[in-house]
């Protein structure tokens, strides 16, 4: 990882990215990258995610640099990677693929896990079961019309530059994996504060977020 006054060159699971970063933020960014690489490696070692491409897609979505979006769109043409690539696209841009009619039907011949074949020993559930199938060509056209709204090297979460206030808003209203990304960003940007537990009981999370009145 290299740094200068205008940005940093980072490596996430073997893929290189260059991101804008103020000098005062470089130490925190380095720690965030190291943490992300450790967690992704743990997931890979546990066999929960197969393939470096899938891990790299998830890491790219969590990191939020729009420079990677053209690569994500290419991954949408591979059935095994399409839905997680769509999720990463949404994580960066904030686009709801299904709501904006940028989704597609399941590819013919694709059979998600677990299959009905009794000889298939892989019984792991489909990790993308609740995600829409992205339509790569319409999404590429959308990106061609909206790319100028994003700055390569900056970091985005759901279409907005990452900030403490925005992360707190995502914690209140985002989906679970989006909230997990926001919680990690807050822990990085607010040293000394514990990582918000997005798996805690709902009432406890509401208390922590100030959404529940004390009796």
Q: What's the short version?
A:
With 215 residues, the chain is mainly α. 45% of the residues lie in helices and 10% in strands.
Describe this structure in words.
The chain is mainly alpha-helical. 45% of the residues lie in helices and 10% in strands. The strands form three sheets. A three-stranded antiparallel sheet has the order 1-2-3. It has a two-stranded antiparallel ribbon with strand order 4-5. The radius of gyration is 18 Å and the shape is globular.
Task: Please name the defining characteristics of this protein.
215 residues, mainly alpha, 2 domains, 3-stranded antiparallel beta sheet
Largest sheet: 3 strands, antiparallel
Distance between the termini: 50 Å
Total beta strand runs: 7
Helix content: 40-55%
Blueprint of the fold:
Blueprint: E1 2-3, E2 7-12, E3 15-20, H1 26-45, H2 52-63, H3 69-75, H4 79-93, E4 103-104, E5 133-134, H5 136-146, E6 156-157, E7 160-161, H6 164-173, H7 176-189, H8 202-209
Antiparallel strand pairs: 1-2, 2-3, 4-5, 6-7
């Amino acid at each position: 990882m290299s740094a200068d006054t205008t940005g940093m060159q980072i490596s996430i699971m073997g893929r290189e990215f260059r991101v804008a970063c103020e000098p005062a933020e470089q130490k925190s960014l380095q720690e965030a990258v190291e943490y992300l690489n450790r967690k992704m490696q743990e997931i890979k070692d546990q066999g929960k995610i197969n393939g470096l491409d899938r891990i790299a897609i998830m890491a790219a979505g969590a990191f939020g640099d729009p420079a990677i979006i053209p690569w994500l769109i290419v991954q949408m043409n591979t059935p095994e990677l399409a839905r997680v690539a769509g999720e990463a696209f949404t994580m960066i841009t904030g686009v709801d693929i299904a709501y904006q009619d940028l989704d597609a039907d399941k590819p013919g011949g694709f059979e998600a896990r677990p299959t009905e074949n009794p000889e298939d020993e892989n019984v792991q559930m489909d990790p993308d079961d609740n995600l829409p199938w992205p339509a790569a060509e319409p999404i590429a056209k959308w990106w061609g019309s909206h790319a100028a709204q994003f700055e390569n090297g900056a970091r985005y979460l759901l279409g907005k530059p990452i900030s403490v206030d925005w992360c707190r808003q995502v914690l209140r209203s985002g989906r679970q994996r989006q909230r997990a990304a926001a919680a990690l960003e807050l822990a990085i940007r607010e040293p000394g504060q514990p990582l918000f537990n997005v798996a805690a009981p709902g009432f406890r999370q509401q208390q922590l977020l100030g959404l529940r009145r004390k009796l």
